[in-house]
Fold these 3 entries.
Entry 1:
Amino acid sequence: MKKSISVLLSLSLAGLLALTGCSGDTGSNTAQNNNGGQTATNGGSTDSSSSGPKILRVNNSSEPGSLHPAKAQGTHESWPLRHLFVGLTEVVEGNKIEPAMAEKWDISPDGKTYTFHLRDGIKWSNGDPVTAADFEFAWKYALNPNTASDYAYQLYYIEGAEAYNTSKEKDPAKLKALEDKVGVKALDDKTLQVKLTNPTAYFLELAGFYTYFPVNKKVQEQNPNWANDASTFVSNGPFKLTEWKHKEGLKMVKNENYFDKDKIKIDEIDWAMIEDENTAWQMYRSGDLDLAYPLPTDVIGQLKSSNSPELHIDPEYATYFYRFNTTKKPFNNVKVRKALAMAIDRQAIVDNVTQAGQKPAYGLVALGSVDENGNEFHQTDYFKEDVAQAKQLLAEGLKEEGLTSMPKFKILYNTLDAHKKIAEAIQSMWRDNLGIECELENAEFQVKIDREHKLDYDISRAGWIGDFMDPMTFMDMFTSLSTQNDTGWKNKEYDALVEKAKQSNDQKVRMQAMRDAEKLFMDEMPVMPIYFYTKPYAVKPYVKGVYALATEYPTLKYADIQK
């Protein structure tokens, strides 16, 4: 181990961590005997050789829930989507915002009206022109209550958007009147006007987010199910979908109608859907994948120890946490929630399980965003680990709920070995420090998401990658009406603070409102932060041009294969 285990850990947990996190375990020895990641440099198939088409092979880990921009909601959708579509703007390497479908834009003096001017000659993959009307249609489609888009709230910055999306109106004429009040309008084929409720400093970044991608209006109206099959799929990005074998894989090829096609070097991206990261790692080592992400935790340790040039560990604006179902006893009691949060050793988890330089998290907002003074926003640890206090809080909380002991409960996590190891470590810590028992339950990613939406769980593993580089991306997730707030927790004061931050154009006021909101949130503890992410992935040495934004999985758009 890199450092000794904290005194919070019992000897039994130390044994567990030795099995899961150190190079001396059976799995690690096997990998070491096979030279860890070093054989990966000899991999690769003839499909991606210099003599044939350049095919990049990656693993998406899971079946996308949807590849419709209005219906996508997670990383298994957003990663392929960002290579199929492009928005008005695009965030590129170095977190720079560049023109994409829009070649330029004007912003009104009050910061509330944006006028985007689209490029000449931009086309969909089927040859149709991309127009401003496609953007207007797409955004209003996402907001339509009948679409039931989980991510529609990302459009609430637009005038009239929230009123339309949250309407319970059944009269079609009245609903259409609400739609017409949404502040997005195609002034002509090449000009899109957007009116915001309040000035939004990060709106240009949002304009490149996948919920803001355009949809071909004609295609959607002719076939509402166009996004479910490769044969009917139409996109405007650097690649177009040519094959979708559900639960198996995706294939996309270079889109010759893409406006910037000359910068695209690879001919095809093949996306596997292998949930087990150990299996995916073996595919990488044997040459069947060119990029491996996520990586098994023990492999990360081996690659770090050998200083492998294939290992990349990049910053990630993300927080790993456990959700509490606050509608269920005893997790409705804040003392119980705090007790569980205070009885685990986060440093031991990041040192001995995850092993990729993650930082223990004692707040919600991840490391990486800046405050009104240009300093790191995250400055406060809102709680500390304290087993004695945790025991006291647990006893008090259970008594308040009429319980004499902690009932058995389950930790739900999606099928990934790293999540299992973390859950096993936390299970052991709670047993040793609080004398309580829990069971572990794994589920396929989309099944887990569906269960969380239905509040069909006790405690659930979760993580949140910021959609944009501002603390608000974490704050508005837990408002009472947010479709991402799968905890059952609601707080009007919290809602008001988030709204105050959204409405203010004064950075000092904005940031203080979000600090106050985060403090209130952590006092209530509807989720238990565990660590702030990093992004460890492996890339073959012949693959060039891959980079990772703090808010995204690795960007493959500008990749090249040079053998």
Entry 2:
Amino acid sequence: MVNPIVVAAKQGQWQLVQKHLFTATLDQVNQRDERGLTALMYGVTALEVPTVKQLLQAGVDPNLSRPPHDITPLMLLAGLPHNNTNDLNYSNKQEQRRENLCGMAKILLEFGAEVNRQNDDGTTALMMAAYRNNLPLVQIFLAGGADCQVQDRQGTTALEWAIKHRNLAMVQALLQGQARLDLRDGDGNLPLTLAIKIDDHDIVDSLLRAGAPWDQESWFTAVEEGKIAPVQALIEAGYPITEPGDTGDTALHIACLEGYEKMVQILLAHQAPLDVVNQAGDTPLILAIAQGQLAIVGQLLKAGANPNFSVTGESPLMTALTMDSLGSQVQREIVQALFKAGVSANQCLWEDKTPLMVAANLNLADLISLLANHGADPNQTDPSGSTALMWACHRGHLEVVKALLDNFPAMDVNVKNNGGQTALHLAHLNHRQAIVAFLKSHPSHGQ
């Protein structure tokens, strides 16, 4: 049988609804239509405050929900769109709508609407209002006893929505309502971590002042994403910046790897450890060099990073020489910075090879003069008795051979390795005809 009250409400005929109330039974006014909606629900969604009030006075159940998701009238109200009063286009009509939303919420609560009722997904009216970024409704619900510690089945709270909307006033209102700061969402994020991810310094500061707990994820999220303000706030709150992550990386490692110059500056100002190694054996300096971060390399060396420090044998200089992705100019400037910081041009690097030998192996002709200017010894040999010139001949790097002979005129070109071979012999054996011809024509040949 068709219920005239529900039909009239569905059609927006509010005077007719009020008329039918005089003769309707309580069962009739609570009856749902084919969509699961009652006259009260239609009135709420239309923001028809006078009719809703009369329905409630007539005994309509304010908590009768819409199947199958158990949506109550208060939830329907909370889920309605609204206009932000900060919008430049905010009008008197929109202000009236806001007042109707708030008035409707107060009436429903006055007549017993359960503010903490959860639908089948665990969502409350407070969560819906927060999702809609509706601060006035959130405040009304909190005043009406809303529990802001409730989580839905995904682990979401009203506070999470407030943070995601960057709504500081709502965050503060929920904090005053005793929102829990140790609840994690479905992805395992604390509220502080969420605030850091959106890089909202004011919300981060409010959460920290409210006693928000932090964890490694909060800290490393801020560092990895280059969030300067949250990093500063966490440092001021006492976060131990020396604490490494799962891979042994400290914040300084990550900042160097990502090229965050300002963050490196902040971390160094707070005495971040310089020569600590991660699980791969890398120091922050080595990572900065590997990424070609010249400015950060300078920052670290100026702060006192050890330019010779090595655990695995991969020293800063070795890293600089072997990173062919750096580009010759950046590579040269980094090597120069390391020499200026006191690195020896004759230190043994990979497989007991000197920097000059490594440069010869890798065809780094542009670096030969720089190494020569810093005292590199061209006659130094590796365990096989090979010199830098021998390696250049073996590899077929003609430009390196030329650079060696130009920069080291006193170099002994006739010295033999452990196998009794000279540089010229190695060029012959490896069919490096251009090098053979060059060496034979060079004045040093036969000396």
Entry 3:
Amino acid sequence: MIKQKRQQLLKKEAEPKRALPTPSPKKNFTIVIDPGHQQHANNDQEPIAPGSKQMKGKVSSGTSGVSTGKPEYELTLEAALILEELLKDRDFDVVLTRMENMVDISNKERAEIANKHQADLFIRLHADGSNDSSVKGFHILTPAEGHAMHKQSLQASKVIFTAVQRDQSIDTNGISFRSDITGFNWSQVPTVLIEMGFMTNTEDDHNLSDPAYLHKLMTHVAEGIVAYNK
């Protein structure tokens, strides 16, 4: 009897172990991705926040690569399409505010798209520019204290930043708080603005135009979103 039980145990141990399933997001977790800017700026004015008399241009065309000449609006759409695929592979519901560059969607309207879809997370993709060409690195902007979604937005910002920061091949510059951004002030959902790097810095510009680097960066962003959803 003992010998028989031992043989059964050995047989069980020899059986191949089943791979654990990849965790799926919480049911109906919706992410709205906003590829920043568009091909042509719209300098017409809109309120910076609900009820505000302070006005701001509806949307700009963004910056461009100091070496590559690539427009920011092209880069952000490329990154958004990569991130969309990565998130859909992880069973998230994903909506993009735009699928092409020749559009006219203001920053207020982009936030309203996220509100309409009752997004669990609103990801805004951008790249930065500076008069100082030595400034480089990935960083995140998040709504300042006092915004209704400050706490949730900061939580998402932290986990996404941590996921990117783990990769030592990517320069990172932390998280900043802003109260003057139209897309934040009109958003009724947790919002994170990702500055992927500085297009005015030669190294960042070349990296962001490298498909492998951009895919790696968006993979880390997706990992952060998964961590936020847990």
